[in-house]
Amino acid sequence: LHQRDDGGGSSDGRGKAALCDDGAEPGAPAHAAGRVPPWTEQLTLRGLVVSVAVGTMYSVIVMKLNLTTGLNPTLNVSAALISFVMLRGWTQALARLGRVVRPLTRQENTVVQTCAVACYSIGAAGGFGSYLLGLNKKTYEMAGVDMEGNVGTKEPGVGWMMGFLFAVAFVGILALVPLRKILVIDYKLTYPSGTATAVLINGFHASKGDDVAKMQVNGFTKYFAISFFWSFFQWFYSGGDHCGFSQFPTLGLRAWKHSFFFDFNLTYVGAGMICPHLVNISLLLGSILSWGVMWPLIADLKGNWYPADLPESSMRSLQGYKAFICIALILGDGIYNFTKIILKTVMSMLDKSKQKSAKNGKQLNLSGLCLPDV
């Protein structure tokens, strides 16, 4: 993320290149960074506080999306924006109080954004939205106490969950760092979310980034206020699980009984705007095919395909068909893509190895031709 400004051949280029972060105006981004700050200046107390605040807020958002829709959108870019807004406000507030503060650098902004992303990623990677909270006794009873294989429970607890997360949450250190060397540096594969985040942070800290930053902050503030006050307005009409705007029968009561309604939740609107069209169209097609066709047809076979005296939430009833059909589709597509990636990676590595061997052999032959006759 460090970019050196060489002045582009102008008369003051040497002065720009020599400017370092310590000479920037307090409360403003360090525009022309003449040096990369040491790690002791990148890890700051204000950065720790801001990263915890942003990570906590995003953890709540990710948990809600995981438990309601199963989506896990990439929030790297927005985390970088919110981190910049909070750090900029922190430094400007202290500067107005007459305190001498270290200017905000792009490296510190990146560290805060990375810590915030690591915080909310535990919500998905740690299994909080899938299996971890499904080990309790209530889920055990819902699945059926006499169901084969359903033999144990594990109530959520801070102690064992922290140990479990320490065991599973270090995938970035143990696996992704070596893969980064191979896939990103050696093979120069694109990393869309990381590249977009780097471009955004560099834009904030560029010499002409103030206008862009102000425009993005103003847009963020405007839509944040719209979402907040709309959610607050809906709260006045929430009288239960099946009341208010969250259960508005947009397409009629018959469609509402099959879960076709609009809940006016701007969180899902934002998630749909982040996800590409391919994902949104696939989700829409899957919802129509399942809730509009498959589940009503299977429900009509109650008493034939499954016992009629069981509730629909039981895994031996309609819920079992929903769960295992969806799991089969996801697992089949996942295995296909995993196999495809492995084969392409192996073939690419073999091609690189052959090209390298051919190049070395050609150089060896050329060097042999240059040997003098003895």
From TrEMBL:
The chain crosses the membrane at residues 43-61, 111-133, 157-179, 278-298, 318-339. Residues 1-35 are annotated as: Disordered. Keywords: Membrane, Transmembrane, Transmembrane helix, Transport. It is a multi-pass membrane protein. Pfam families: OPT (PF03169). One of its GO terms (cellular component) is plasma membrane. Residues 25-34 have a biased composition (Low complexity). The keyword Phosphoprotein does not apply. It is found in: Membrane. It comes from the Eukaryota. PANTHER family: OLIGOPEPTIDE TRANSPORTER YGL114W-RELATED, YELLOW STRIPE-LIKE 9 TRANSPORTER. Belongs to the YSL (TC 2.A.67.2) family. This is Uncharacterized protein. It comes from Aegilops tauschii subsp. strangulata (Goatgrass). The lineage of its organism: Eukaryota, Viridiplantae, Streptophyta, Embryophyta, Tracheophyta.
